């Protein structure tokens, strides 16, 4: 396999508060749970956040269970972790672990959001894990002044359909909607909140004097599901969180209070971001023309992919002469992460760099594959409407 990169124990919070800020002018990129900017150097992020790289030894241990290596691990899309080796120890010792992941329902779901969910589903299947899936409708209401409860309620419903359509095991998956299931979170959240100072929250999340106090008080609500499994199972229960690395600040403060509260520290497996079709920054709902949404119609997908930025040269003649820059091309990365086999992808890279492949061909492959994938997904999304109650934490329906 070609090794490619698509861009360049005790407390998880150091004493130097500046070092913990994810919003630090020392760095030429910024990663917070609410903002991702600049060209991210993932190795620097590992050092800055104090996480661990995923080693070949860990991948080999996962393979002992799964029998194969998932492409997102092989291609280093999931690149960093905290205590994943410990989770594997627990599993090997016969102790089961919960999975926990989530979504902030501020818009429709795009395929960037789906990447950690597809991986979570795979881990659920292979390890037989139960999953808590949190919908932070409170966070998204609080985050900006211009979102109404009705708007968030609409996206909550639409996002629930996406979550169910991913194909999680209905017997082992529960969706927690913050404003509806708060009674299960609040006792834990207040225990957590009591142990985190404003000074720590400011340093970790970059809060300032102009941040509304709802947002400042929110992190313990996202931390609470890390400990809920221990309450449900009535014994300390390990938890693994698959998510992109933007969510890591939450886990840093959670891990810091866990043992003091009598719980295990939650473990994480962090992914990179799926780039936008414009290649500037991550795929984001705020730039809908450069994101592929699960509800996009085939002609919309085709239009977006046709207009995508590529690593190609300005003219066909130059492309033939100089070759393209696949590693700087979102079309290449989407195909590699989602649709190509490893061999197809390596061949695509070589053909592109040697000028034997034109961008139109890659775009046509991506458009076709995305239409197929999202077409199937849309059918499952429709069926999801009938089974919402089965997935909700309280077993009650959620109406549009
Ligand atoms: P949200 O809705 O911003 O994102 C949902 C999930 O998608 C990941 N993500 C991406 N992954 C790859 N490429 C991208 N371009 C991209 N954009 C977003 C996020 O890391 C996340 O995993 N506060 C959270 C909701 C939440 C949560 C959780 C997430 C609550 N509990 C536990 C993960 C784990 C949020 O607003 O996520």
In DSSP terms (H or I, runs of 4 or more residues), the helix count works out at: 20
Looking at the overall shape, the CATH architecture of the largest domain is 3-Layer(aba) Sandwich
Question: Which ligands accompany this protein?
Answer: tryptophanyl-5'AMP
Task: Give the overall pLDDT as a whole number.
Answer: 93
Largest sheet: number of strands, sense, barrel closure: 7 strands, mixed
Rounded to the nearest angstrom, the radius of gyration is 21 Å
> Whole-Å distance between the termini?
46 Å
Shape: globular
How many β strands by DSSP?
9
Order of helices and strands: HEEHEHHEHEHEHHEHHHHHEHEHHHHHH
Task: Provide the helix percentage.
Answer: 40-55%
Strand content: 5-15%
Which strand order does the major sheet show?
3-4-9-8-5-6-7
Secondary structural class: alpha/beta
Low-confidence blocks of residues: 15-26
Tell me the count of domains: 2
CATH superfamily membership of the largest domain, which one? HUPs
CATH topology (fold) name of the largest domain: Rossmann fold
In words, what does this structure look like?
This protein is an alpha/beta fold. The chain folds into 2 domains: 250 residues, HUPs (Rossmann fold, 3-Layer(aba) Sandwich); 97 residues, Orthogonal Bundle (Tyrosyl-Transfer RNA Synthetase). It has 20 helices and 9 strands. The strands form 2 sheets. Strands 3-4-9-8-5-6-7 form a 7-stranded mixed β-sheet, sandwiched between helices. The protein has a two-stranded antiparallel sheet with strand order 1-2. 46% of the residues are buried. About 3% of the residues have low confidence. The structure holds tryptophanyl-5'AMP.
């Amino acid at each position: 396999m070609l090794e490619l990169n698509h861009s360049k124990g005790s407390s998880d919070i150091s004493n130097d508060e500046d070092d913990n800020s994810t919003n630090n002018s020392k760095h030429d990129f910024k990663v917070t749970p609410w903002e991702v900017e600049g060209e991210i150097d993932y190795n620097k992020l590992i050092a800055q956040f104090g996480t661990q790289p995923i080693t070949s030894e860990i991948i080999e241990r996962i393979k002992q269970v799964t029998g194969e290596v998932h492409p997102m691990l092989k291609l280093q899309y999931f690149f960093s972790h905290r205590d994943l080796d410990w989770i594997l120890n627990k599993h090997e010792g016969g102790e089961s672990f919960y999975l926990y992941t989530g979504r902030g329902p501020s818009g429709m779901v795009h395929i960037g959001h789906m990447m950690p969910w597809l991986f979570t589903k795979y881990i659920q299947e292979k390890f037989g894990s139960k999953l808590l899936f949190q919908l932070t409708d409170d966070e998204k209401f609080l985050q900006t002044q211009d979102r109404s409860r009705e708007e968030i309620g609409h996206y909550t419903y639409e996002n629930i359909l996406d979550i169910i359509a991913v194909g999680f095991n209905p017997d082992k998956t529960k969706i927690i909607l913050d404003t509806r299931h708060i009674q299960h979170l609040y006792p834990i959240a207040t225990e957590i909140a009591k142990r985190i100072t404003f000074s720590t929250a400011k340093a970790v999340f970059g809060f300032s004097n102009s941040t509304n106090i709802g947002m400042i008080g929110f992190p313990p609500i996202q931390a609470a599901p890390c400990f809920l499994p221990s309450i449900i199972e009535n014994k300390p229960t390990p938890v693994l969180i698959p998510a992109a690395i933007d969510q890591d600040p939450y886990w840093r403060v959670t891990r810091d209070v866990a043992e003091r509260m009598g719980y295990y520290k939650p473990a994480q497996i962090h992914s990179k971001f799926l780039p936008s079709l414009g290649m500037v920054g991550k795929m984001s709902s705020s730039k809908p023309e450069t994101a592929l949404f699960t509800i996009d119609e085939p002609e919309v997908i085709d239009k977006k992919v046709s207009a995508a930025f590529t690593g190609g040269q300005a003219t066909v003649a130059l492309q033939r002469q100089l070759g393209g820059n696949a590693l700087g091309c979102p079309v290449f990365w989407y195909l590699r992460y989602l649709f190509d086999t490893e061999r197809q992808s390596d061949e695509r890279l070589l053909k592109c760099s040697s000028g034997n492949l034109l961008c139109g061909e890659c775009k046509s492959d991506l458009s076709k594959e995305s239409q197929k994938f999202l077409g199937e997904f849309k059918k499952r999304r429709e069926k999801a409407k009938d089974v919402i109650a089965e997935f909700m934490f309280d077993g009650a329906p959620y109406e549009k």
